[in-house]
Amino acid sequence: MNVLVVLMPISIGLGLAGLAVFVWTLRARQYDDPEGDSVRLLDPRWDDRPMAPPKTHEAPGPGA
Amino acid sequence: MSTLATCPGCAIPPRPVPAETIRADLVLHLPDIHCAACIASVETMLAEVPGVRSARVNLTLRRAMVETDGSVEAPDLIARLAAGGHRASVFEPGVRTGQSPEMRDLASRIGVAGFAAMNVMLLSVAVWAGAGDVTARMFHLISGAIALPAVAWAGQPFFRSAYRALRAGRMNMDVPISLAIILASAVSLAVALGSSDRPGWFEAALSLTFFLLIGRYLDMAGRHASRSAAAELAALEVPQAIRLANGAEEIVPARSLAPGDHVLIRPGDRIPADGRVIDGDSDLDRSILTGESLPVAISPGADVAAGELNLTGTLTLRVTRAGAETGLARLAAMVATAEMQRSRYTGFADRASRLYAPAVHALGAMAFVMWWSLTGDPIRGIDVAISVLVITCPCALGLAVPAVSTVSTARLFRAGLLVRSPTALERLAEVDTVVFDKTGTLTTGELRLGADTDPKALALAAGLARGSSHPLSRAIAKAARARGISPAPVGALQEKAGRGVEGIFHGERIRLGRPGWAGAMGAGGGSVQLLDGAGKVSSFTVDEVPRPDAVEAVQQLEAMGMRVTLLSGDAPDSAARLARRLGIAEVMGGVSPEGKHEVLARMAAEGRRPLMVGDGLNDTGALAGAHASMAPARAVDAARSLADVVILSEGIASVATAVSVARRAHGLARQNVALAIGYNLVSVPVAFAGLASPLVAALAMSSSSLAVTLNAMRARK
């Protein structure tokens, strides 16, 4: 049963990592437009050079 | 316009949603976009318009958020998009442009509760599987360390709402929920700290929080921002007027006008107050006030009403009624009253939970008292009381209705319908009569020239029509374009307000205008006549253009067993003509705005449940008074904000879709509630008998929640 001392923190740590990722996706507004994000992948406009990152999460990205 | 309670049983409205954080100066609705290419072309087009800082399309919501420097307005952007083949319209300002901060907050609480529930569940499985003394106690302590902070934070929405309700001396569904969560956590903590090997309730408290938060999230997602329609009606009133005093013109606020004042009204202005014309001729567009499809010619001595649009000539008006006395202001007051009456409508879920909350408390208390007196052991009593509370807690009930309405609302959105009121689906499902407005609802609001026109006369008429922006002139120009006839080169065009257009063609004076001015009075029929150089009179008949799917809409509704009625403010004979064309048996024409409201009120008194579909200011009373209401996206703001459902697509056939989806949703919601109550009927006696272990309680709760969610998914089809 001593193995629990190692396993328990690992399991809870993994869970916490998942939670942290979820909160991050939420803050990064990844659930605002799920349909649009899925097709934006096919958008040819940014094939040659990447889009400039949005300045803050508050403003919409420089969409074009 | 509706109850804003966060949960069905909660009588206290939540705090107002803070302003949206995405900066969007203009929000455009794009009903037809569907792919990556659409996103790219819309964003590129919008970004090319000078004055646009950035534009971003949200495909899920079919919207474009545009940030501007203030120099461009929505019509410019819509025109640019139309040129590129994208249909767009301005969205009501103030609508949600993404997940609101409140929804993100709820989502993080769901995440935390879900994480904690899963981990504690894992630990509990070990205990149930027979982990030994020391291990079991250690697992309890670890569960407690995870569960207590998680419950304390994630459960806050329930605790706050329950506290507010209790402080106001009221009872809502959050009171038993909070009680169950707190009692279960506290007892489990005592068990974990003590030496007893009783099972704990941590996983029950957490999964309770988790499922209830999901229900609340769905509930919030289903609601849309709705503004008070009464305030919008007031906003439509003309703010300024040109008053004539001692021969001088001065600009004054419209509300400072008094009866007896003389007011100057230029072409393109709205009439600021009710009054009588003392000088000038013009044509007035009354369609938004009365539903009349053709503009009305007026001359000195005519009475005009506030809100009408002056089209062609300059008028001088003597004010007879101003401010709160005008017809428009009285209409606004009527709408406000009707709106208040409708907001008292209580939904099915509301009625169910009002009975439910006291019943849950009574059951819990009974269980406690019974087991305490039977066994003499208060701990045993609390244990059973918790299991009763946990099992009866409305996880399934709280999910049952929001899940169905979320899925159905999404289904309607895909069909081009925006549901604006939380109780709209339920009221739509009960509808048995559909009342249509004519102008702008069943018709497109445009005019079309009759087919039997002489091409030469049409060429002349189109040449004259260039000199006027009157709707009839526009119809003639359009007909000429459609038939490939180029307008005759008519010179010296002169618009005679209230009469027509005059011009010179090959040295001869020709006229296009109202019968009696252009041609001889009574010679031929039609709405417009042309007098050519030889003195020959040709008549043109104009007709309204019904929406292409109007016949289909009427047939579908009748097939569903609805009574369809046409209720128009336009002349009875033109209303009857359209009704015949569309196959509507019941028709009422020439109805005043107040009259429309009365017709709807009479239907309600007869026990009918009417659905009003209308777009004009004259329909607002009827929209507010109807059991449910719909308006096309092009309707005036006041009508749109009163409507339960806004039709975003061009057609009108979606009215039938809306009703059938609503009926199905209502059926599913009832099934779900029955399912949830059924689970309780089985599990409550078990819990009452003291046989429900935490395992059984958790299983019952999860499986009933899962069952109602899966059932709700059937609304997608």
Automatic annotation (TrEMBL), chain A:
Region described as Disordered: 34-64
Keywords assigned: Membrane, Transmembrane, Transmembrane helix
Keyword Magnesium: no
UniProt-listed Pfam families: FixS
Composition-biased stretches (Basic and acidic residues): 34-58
Keyword field contains Transmembrane helix: yes
Residue intervals passing through the bilayer: 6-26
Coiled-coil spans in chain: none
PANTHER family: FIXS PROTEIN
Name recorded for this polypeptide: Cytochrome oxidase maturation protein, cbb3-type
Originating organism: Brevirhabdus pacifica
UniProtKB/TrEMBL annotation, chain B:
Designated name of the protein: Uncharacterized protein
One Pfam entry name: E1-E2_ATPase
Keyword terms: ATP-binding, Cell membrane, Ion transport, Magnesium, Membrane, Metal-binding, Nucleotide-binding, Phosphoprotein, Translocase, Transmembrane, Transmembrane helix, Transport
Alphabetized PROSITE patterns for the sequence: ATPASE_E1_E2, HMA_1, HMA_2
GO molecular function: ATP binding; ATP hydrolysis activity; copper ion binding; P-type divalent copper transporter activity
Keyword Ubl conjugation: no
Cell compartment(s), UniProt: Cell membrane
Organism: Brevirhabdus pacifica
UniProt keyword Hydrolase present: no
Membrane topology listed for this record: Multi-pass membrane protein
Gene Ontology biological-process annotations: copper ion homeostasis
Gene Ontology cellular component terms for the protein in this record: plasma membrane
